[in-house]
Amino acid sequence: MSDNEALHEPRSNDVRAGRQRTTMVGQPMTGALADRTTRSPAPVTNPPRQRLRRALRRHGKEYLLFAALAGPNLALILVFSYWPVIYNLYLSFTSWDMISPAPSWVGLDEYRQLFTSADFGHVLLNTAKFVVLIVVGAIVGGLATALVLNQRLAGRGLVRTLSFAPHIVSGAAIAALWLFMLDPSFGLLRALLEPLGISSPQWTTSSHYSLYALVMVYLWKGIGFCAIIYVAGMQNLPTDLFEAATLDGANRWQQFRHVTFPLLSPVTYFLVVTSIIGAFQAYDVTAVMTGGGPGQSSTTLSWFIYQQAFQASNAGLAAAAAMVMLVVLLTITILLARYGERRVTYQ
Amino acid sequence: MLIAAVFVMPLYWLFSSAVKPSGEIYQFPLQWIPRQLHWSNFTNAWHDAPFGSFFVNSIIVTVVGTVIKMVLATGSAYAFTFLPFPFKRFIFLLLLGTLMTPGTITLLTNYLTASDLGWVDTYAGLIVPGAGSAFGMFLLRQQMMALPREVFEAARVDGASHLRILLRMVVPMSRPMMITVSLISVIEVWNDFIWPLIITTTTEMRTLPIGLLYLKSQEGYNDWGAIMAGTVMVAAPMLVVFLLAQRYIVAGFSGGAIKG
Question: What is the pTM of this model?
Fold first, then answer.
């Protein structure tokens, strides 16, 4: 402990001596300083190889340490995040049952097969409904919940905790719980709906309701999350703007419409992006509750990819569908970045 | 009140059903409060599936996975904050780029890679592919950028090595963010469903969330008491973690949304 303190409080002349030595020998210690020195003095006539050699001589040790510290993480990410995308692109041009020794090249055949099958059209439509309902529902519901949770109410801390809890519980556990609650003969939902004169539908076993049953469960998981992020955002808002609005005679709705909501737009933007990506990839609840059925009534793109890869052993088709998802997600992200960010007001 | 009810009711229903005898579970109109606490659902679940080994697997994968992730994320965050390297910015962006690669797309090909490595049904297969961390590295780097540089420069001058500075100064000073990142990792790994489902093939290697599938019967008759008991076993540890450390967890999840 004692030499730790010594590290924190070096004698002042040591520091000065150190600074001087640094500049004299040109051996900076921090990344930022290093960047500056390597960039600035290099004359244009200096061939790059010579520059590299000099940089190596100067920072060789630090480069090695950098490689040792950042290398393993980088290697894992290259192998398990970048390589799979490239490999997947290759697989999408092949037909492969995952048993025969090698995939066989079929060009665009799998894509043609995807886009000519009625099934895939149905899956895309399901995905669109699912994503829109979840994103809109979670954000509107989350914002409404946050507005309530931001009031000074008794027990709001507890309610906040409880509303965020579903987000940190395993999707499989939540799916099992909801499957039980949605049971049409002894489920909790039946008990809640019957007094209202609504008879409980066959939530998960009827093709009319299965997709909406999944949406309901994912919303239960997502609304609390959005609400807590919104609450955190609301607590960051400057109070003087609200005081000014009150002085100008703005009522609560006007304050929300013209002050709160615009100021929260970066939060909304963040939630839209993350909810879209999350909704496209959601399948743990699907796996436990409906398995995509009955038929394909609750199959979304991510579950379709899973089915084709691991139930039908149809690697090529699964890879092609995955590429479709990648293109769709990239397009949405780019469109949001170009047109969405423009509408975001930062303080 | 209504909001509270929406979130409380299902959780209450989970815990109360786990301790109800089957007569009360299938009763309609509902039995809102169990007449007496009844623990046999837990022993039934334990008999229907090897929950002991599910627990052990989940704990091993979560603890080891999180430790590896923390070591790698902390090391790379330090490197990107304090050390020079050619094309450092580019490499950093390369790491962050993975935040945009959806897990669904890497699922099949990562399975093939893991199977080529002989990792199907092993702890390595469960842990290693998820151990790289761009998000954790990013959060930790944000935190380290905010630390006072002069102190570290002074320590360097006093002859402290980078490793020493990292372990004895930067890590202790970054403690809140280290807690946040490790808690998020624990929650993610514990709850993961699809990857353990495909990478494990024998019952002995399954993790808890997949254990729930063993309680659902194929013939259509479900012992819901046992399923709810199993669900409690999956959900309760994370609920406890959350109740104890919600401040850190919420800070991590909202880290991307709110600046400052």
Answer: 0.85
